[in-house]
Each structure stands twice: as C-alpha cells, then as structure tokens.
Amino acid sequence: MSINMQLEPLFKSLLITGSVQGETRMKGGLMSEIRSVALALAVISSLVQPAHAGTQTAELSSQKSHSTRAAQLLVQSSDNVNKVTGVKINSTDKGIEIILESANAEALKPVNNNQGNSYIADIPNAVLALDKGGNFTQNNPAPGIVSVSVTQANTNTLRVTVIGEGSLPNTELFDSDQGLIFAVTPIASATKPQQPTQAVAEVTGVKLNPTNNGLEIILTTPDGEKLPVLPKTEGNTYIIEINSAQLRLPSGGTFRQEKPIAGVSEITVTNSDANTIRMAVIGVDSIPKVELFDSDQGLIFGVASAASSTQAQTQPQTPTEPTQPSASDEPIELTVTGEQDGYRVQDSSTATKIDVPLRDIPASVQVIPKEIIQDRQVVRLNELADNVSGVRRQETYGGLASQGYFIRGFETGFENLRNGFKDFGFISPRDVSSIERVEFLKGPASILYGSISSPGGVVNTITKQPLSDPFYQINGTIGSDDFYRTSIDLTGPLVENRSALYRLNLAYENADSFRDFVNNESTYIGPIITVKAGENTDITFGYEYQKYDYTFDRGFPNNNRVVFDLPINRFLDEPSLNRGEFTSNNFTYVLESKFGYNNNWKFRQGFNVINVNGSAGGTQANSINEDGLTVAREYRVSNDKSNNISFQNEISGKFNTGSIRHNILVGLELSNYSFQYDFYRGTIADLNIFNPVYGAQPESVERAFFEKYGGSNIALYLQNLVEITPNLKLLAGGRFDWVDSFYRNLETGATNNETSDSKFSPRVGIVYQPTDSTSIYGSWTNSFNPQIFGRSINNEAFKPETAKQFEVGIKQEFLDNRLSATLAYFNITKKNVLTTDPDPANSDFQIQTGEQKSSGVELDVVGEILPGWKIIGTYTYTDAFVSEDPILVNNRLAGVPYNSASLWTTYQLQKGNLQGLGLGFGLVYVGQRESDISNNNVKIPSYLRTDASIFYKRDRWRVGVNIKNLFDTKYYESQGFYIVPAAPFTVLGTVSLEF
Hints:
Elements lengths: L2 H13 L13 H20 L7 E3 L11 H8 L4 E3 L1 E6 L4 E6 L9 E2 L5 E7 L1 E3 L7 E7 L2 E10 L2 E8 L5 E6 L3 E7 L15 E3 L1 E6 L3 E7 L8 E6 L2 E7 L1 E3 L6 E8 L2 E10 L2 E8 L6 E6 L2 E7 L1 H8 L33 E2 L7 E2 L7 E5 H7 L14 E3 L11 E3 L2 E2 L3 E4 L2 E4 L10 E8 L3 H4 L7 E7 L7 E9 L3 E11 L6 E13 L6 E16 L2 E14 L5 E2 L21 E17 L5 E24 L5 E28 L2 E24 L3 E2 L10 E27 L2 E18 L5 E21 L2 E12 L15 E14 L4 E18 L9 E21 L2 E16 L14 E10 L8 E10 L2 E2 L8 E2 L2 E12 L2 E8 L7 E3 L3 E4 L4 E9 L1
Parallel strand pairs: 2-7, 13-18, 30-33
Antiparallel strand pairs: 1-3, 3-4, 4-12, 5-6, 6-10, 8-9, 9-10, 11-12, 14-15, 15-23, 16-17, 17-21, 19-20, 20-21, 22-23, 24-25, 26-32, 27-28, 28-29, 30-31, 32-33, 34-35, 34-61, 35-36, 36-37, 37-38, 38-40, 39-60, 40-41, 41-42, 42-43, 42-44, 43-45, 45-46, 46-47, 47-48, 48-49, 49-50, 50-51, 51-52, ...
Helix pairs in contact: 1-2
C-alpha cells in the first residue's frame, strides 16, 4: 500500500475532514496550530507503522446471513456494473471500518439517504457478488452500533446500512487499495437524557468569506451550537440539512452564489420545508470538502477550493525524494467571494473563453450581473452603458429593443455576442428577462471572435442556465406612460436524480411612450434544457423566441440646433405609417465534456443559429429645411432578414511544465452570416415642426434596393495563459481567419463585390501581482474587419480595416476584497478606413487612406463598502478623432464625450424592525458630444441625470419603486445620424415573488 493511502485515514481523522455529523469544532488561530501539528504527526506516524496498526481484522463470513442468490444472477447478466466481491469489518479505536472489496473502488459513488438513527448509503451501478452469494448482515459489531448490512437495493444499486444505538453514527468515507472504506464512529446517545424539542431558529444572514484553503459559508444565527446538522451527498453535490431552522434573509428565503471558488460551481441555501434549511455545495468535478465550525456568529462551514484539494492529493510519495515544486505547492487563489445580490463578479469567460479570475486577465473587463439589472430596473440592455466606463449607448433602429454602444470611441455597429456566438444585432431584439449577466470586453477582440466591426470592444450577454434546485420567480412592473411588463423565471430538475435540468423564462411587455404616437409590444419565450449525458458530460439545448412590434421612431435630424427647442415628445413622422415588427429565433446547442487527469481538460462544442426577419419604416425626417420651421421627409420601408450560423469546437486544459502552469485553449470555428434587405422609397410632404399637421401619404413609392451581403469564415485560434510564478502571468495567443465575403444585387442577380481575406490577429498581455490584492497589467491586441461595401475608381477590392491597441492598467482590491477598482489607459489606432475620394470627379467612389485614433483613461469601482451598502461607479476621459483623412482630419468621432462619469449605490438595512428596507441613488454625467463625424456645429449638450429607488425585501417578496430622471432633466442620446430625445421623469413600480 502506498504511503499516500496509509496517510489518508489518519490525516482525515486528525484534521476532521470529510462528512461530519453531530460534532462542533474549534475555530481560529489555535485550530490552525493544531492542524499543523497533526499533519506533522501524520507524516511521522506513517513512516514508522502501517496505517491500520493496532486494529483487529475479523473475517465475519461465518456470521453472514444469506437471503437469496439474486445478486449473483445479476452479475452474470450484466457487465456494465461494478462488482463488490467481499465485505469485511475491522475494529478500530473509534468504532469499526466497513470495507467493500472491489477491483474498481474509485467507481463506487455512494449517495447518502440517512433516516433517523440509520446511516444509509446507496451505491448506483454496483452489485454484491459474494462467494456465497446473498446479502451481508452483522449484528452488534461494536458498542453503539446495532447492525451493519450490505444489500442489493435494486437491480443495479447497492445499499450500505449502519443502524446506530439511539443516534446516527458518524461516518467518513475513504478509498484504499482494498476497496471502499466506511469509517464508522458510534455516538452513545442512548444513555443520555432526551433533549427537549427545539424551537425553530432563524438564520438572518448568509456570507461568504475567503480563507487560505477556500472559503467560509457563515449562517448568521445566535442558536448555531444548538442546531442539528445532517450531511449527505448526491453526485458531486455536498448537501447539509439543518433541522429546526428557517432562512429569514432580507432578500427572501433563498441564497445563491455561482462559482464562488475554484472547483465549486454553485452554493445555494434555501428553506426545504417549514422546519429545515438545505445548503447545497455543488462541485465541478467531484464532491467538495466541507467542514463544520462553531462560533459566536453562527454556523460556519469551511469549503476547500480545487487548488486546496489538489494540494492534498499531490503530496510526494516518499519524503526523501527530491521533487520539483508543483502547482499545488503555490498559494491558493480565491476566484470569487461575496454575497448573493452582490454587484462584484470576479471571473469572466468573454476575454479568454475560459473561466479566469478578472485579476489574472491583462485587459479591462467589466461584468454587470442581474442584481444591478434588477436594482436599477433596467428594461433595455443598452441602459447598462451607464455603469461601464468608456461605454455610451447608441440609439437603435428606430427604437428597436436591440443593443447599440459606443465603446472607447468607436461604434459597435450593433454587433454583439450571445453566449459567445456572434449576433448581428441591428434588427435583433433582446429581452432582459433571461440575462444572467452582461460582460463588456474593451479593446479589439479578433483574437477569439474574428472579424469585428468595432476595435473599441465587444459585449457578450450571458443567459441564465438551469439550476439543480427548484427556483420559481414571477415579476410584475407598471410605470409611467402606461408601461406594463411581467416576467416569469422557472428552473429545477426534470427528473429525480437531477440528470436533466430545465429553465424557462417568459416575458411580456406592452407600453406607450413619452413620445407622441409611440408604443411597443414584446413577447419573449426562452426554454433551456441541460442533460447529463455522462459523469463528466453535459449537453445543453436552448431556444429563444421574441416578437417585437413597435412604432418606428428615429427622433430628430441632426443638421440644425433648432431641434433642441422642440418639446421632446414631438413626433416628426407620420403616426399612421410608421411601424416596425421583427421576429427573432435563436437555437443553441452546447456539449461540454471533461476528461484527463483530475478532469483538467475539457472539450466544448457549440452550435448556434440566429434568424431574424421583419420590416420597419415609414416616414423619416431627413433634415431641417433652411427656414428652420419645416422638416424635409422621405418615405422608406425595408423588409429585412438576417441569419447567423456558428459552429465552434474547442479543447481547453491545464498542465504544468516544471513549476510553470499552463491554461491552454485551442479552437476551430466555422461561421456563416448574411443580411438581406428589400428597400422601398417614396416622397412625402414636409412637416411644420412647431405646428405639425399629420395625415400626408407617400407618393412615387418604388423599390430602391434589393440586396444581400454576408460571408463565410473559417478560423483557427490558440491561446495560452501561462503562470510563470504565482504573481507573474503571461497571456499570449492568436487567431487566423479565412473570410470570403459577398455583396449582391438580388434584383438583377449581379455581384457588386466579392472579397477573400485572410488575417492573423495576435494578442500578448502580462500581469504582475505584487500582492494578493493588486494586479498590474499591460497588453497589445489587434482586430480586423473586411470591407465589402465601398469600391474604388478602378473597381478594386479594399483591404480589411485593421486596428491595434496598447493598454496598461492596475486592478486593486479594497476592504478585505469587498471592493475592487480598475484603472486603465488605452490607445487604439484604426487603419484602412474608407473615405470619399477627394477628386470631385470621383465623389461616388472611395479611397482607403483614413485613420482614426482613440485614447483615454477609465476607472471602474464596484463592490460593497459596508454590509448592505453596494456601489458601482465609473469615470472616463476619451479623446477620439479622425487622424488621417482628406476632409475630416482632426474631427471628433460622433457620440463620444471627452468626459463622462456615473454612480449607482444602494443601501439595505440589515437588522431591526425595518430590516430589508433599502434605498438607491444614481448619477450619470455625460459631456458634450458631436452629433455626427462631419462636426457640423450641431453638438449634443451635456447632461447630469439623477435616479433613485426605494425597495423592500422580506422572505420571498421584493417590492420596489424606481425613479429615473428624478429632476426631469432634458437630455439627448446619439444614433450617429439622428438626435434622439431621452425619457423625462419616469416611475416604475415592481413586485417580485419567489416560490
């Protein structure tokens, strides 16, 4: 037997790890010292005697009872189950060991189903195959234990039952060369007087605190030492049931935190019934290690991170052998801490396509979780631009509920990501109800996502995923301008063993607007199903349907400042003609399978189709006439279709070369995109902007364009996150794209343009972490975007637009890691920009000599200052201008202010009669901006907007009132060609119920 196996039982006994039942342990500095001494004694003990010295071994075959030979028959008929060929009971100092002899012990996965004084462990995919057949039973194997039995519960499930005398025995589980070992310690509680029935204790808070080995889960209650704690496991989930207790949080009866530390996918604390709290710690690859402590704060559960577990498993085989430092010898990193409802998220997949702590990424990445969406009562995703530095909202296609942004000075072109898949968002509506979080990656992103229209950054919306525990929520909102909205969120297991999970989000919205004649109606349906296809393989199928019907409203023309004298509700189009309707269908399939040593490798395959079709248009106000009293208008209607298809295959894994850690990603992506528009144009009468009279009808309507453009793409990419030392990390990689693009006239069948481009996009970044709370980084990134619309005088294809960025920054944690800040400087240069040919004779053609630059400083602060006091704040300075152009040189880029800043903060009372009551306050400042790139002297004024909220959370209820634009500030947003009035004083009232 190896020294590792000899050490394991003694090590776990001394440190009291694994499952615990009915024990309260010391906590604090003294416990740390005891553990250190215990570890040293364990090592010394293993060198001088066998791990089981001093125990008696007794073959108890003569005392077995044989019921039937059914198990033997089952073994003969099935080769897909694990055989237990022997059962032994050994006496120990504390009680007994039950050894299930099996050639494949590691495949035996017990699931606890304790009842009363009986410890019951069911082992699926296992049969009892004793020499004499039948079941195993031993009565009174040790004082305090009534009996031990090993039986065949059903055709492929083995059951181990240990009946205690008066109380449930403590049981720990070990693997050894002999098989699976249950170490049983009886509790002689039968001789003790029966305790009186406990009153139901209240747990008023749940907190997650980082520790050296992982984190602590603190359940705040004055009655912690009195509460009975019953642990069990189901698959990779460690479950603790706390009787005579109820969760009474200000936010309700549920606590949830995803990815709190490495190796743990989720922690939930819920009320399973009127008398019991259920805590579930779900492991990524295996059952998490959990310890129970007691303190004045309440119940404390210590959870070890994956790094800590690896450290325990990778001890040297012999102490005298020289070994190289391994990854497990290095400091453990806590990837996520904080409470549910927290604003601070500490990992992101958008920047690297692997789950990496934000502090290890050499880039500025801001993550907006659903808690901010709820607290601000966001109903359009581009409102989130207020909470991210360097980002401003761009008004959408006539008011469609899609996503448009200016990021670091550049338009995104409405192109964004859904769960890492590209979405041409110009005509794609997007509902907020299914959004788990929104990740903003700033800077060029071609390294992972190929051709990108904006070098400023990319936005990835992450949808809510199915949960293993049932969760049901319904929300209702009413507000100003006849705003009505309801949404439902349902999730949980589809089958009892939780091998199939579901989530269903539904939303309906019907609203008028502060703008005259404007309204919208939206219906959203989003089901997701995750199926566990194997022990380490999950398959997820998702579908999203949304129909968005709305009044098409572009706002005001941007050629004359007189529009700022108009009332913001003024409609310059025709109420009876302007309409838009788009239907979006989004299907996603994702397979994820872990493999290799310790499941350190993962294969991911993803397939996504986004199809959108519809029409929009009507009368559009093109420009204010020279008289300053009337607006020139045009009739335009377009029937549009877009289609995105993406197929991704990726392998990622972790390995070491000596003392250097690697986290590598290799991927292949195939994609196809097309956009088709059938565009009609006609004339219509002008309109007096100060005294409008509506009712004009279009004339001379005819087809202007019937065209389609798009392309297909093949890409290979490679990335390696290298941990040179624990505080020095290097991120390097590149992507090679082959893109074939087209632009066709569908009416004539002619091809306007075709291009074939290939491009390599590299990225290099470095992170230095002088302390556990500080990261200093620098990076160089690139992007490209094929040009298919412009043409030269010689009808030659243009080169792709390219961009590069240099960025340096610092990420700092404050207040015991409750508050984080990112300060960044960036410099982006975009080349090969198409500009109009300066030769008047060739004004219908373009040349490729343009260049644009953007540089600036950004600051983001997010977290919790005090318990209940959350904050997210930003500041940005951006200098974005045309650096090379025959006509526009030195002009500012449209829609981008020099200075902008924002603050949103909430405070919720943590105790007292008003516990659960909270207030929110927000400020948004945006400086003066150019209305378009021509810098035509029409500048959009600066503004300072104030928001506020009041809310109350109690048990399963949340009631809130949000006031947007508290002081009724008159302000405007930019579309790039139009000036769009923003909403005045607005009130939204929301009621949420979890059940």
